[in-house]
Amino acid sequence: DPVPVEQAGAAKRTTVKGILEADVAAPPKVDGIKFPATQVASSDPNTLDDYEEGTWTPGISFAGGTTGITYTAQLGKYTKIGRIVYASFNVILSSKGSSIGAARVTGLPFSASANAAQGVTALIWGSLTTAVVALIAATDQSATTAQVWHTTAAATSVSNLTDAGFSDTTELDG
Asked: Do 101 and 150 touch, CB atoms closer than 8 A?
């Protein structure tokens, strides 16, 4: 049988086959959890006391050098929940410049921990000059950079991707 419902002010009166009758208040309107603009740190490890969303400007360097590197796009977003940061990015080169050496993603929104395991992410790529089967970025400890590692079909381990693997139109997404 259908459950008759009558409007009684702000509450609803519900009757189920004449057995149960209760006033049910409308649920309160909730706008979500609000965090202060400036973190108020708690000594309780079970208290979520920090949440932040923002943008950042990713870049590419080769052995720390950025001479002549220019971009078609440099887009980055992040979400920080407590001490964990989720960062995503898109970089498209218009010139890889003249710096040489191991590639790094630069400009991460926060420094990685000095004593924690590296954060690692798989990367999506386009227009590399090296035949790559997997590409990852691993954060450098105590830094706002991440090493770019790759593997090829014949490789049994990963190695640094260098400037030689980039073209003037390389795209990385992570």
From this structure: no
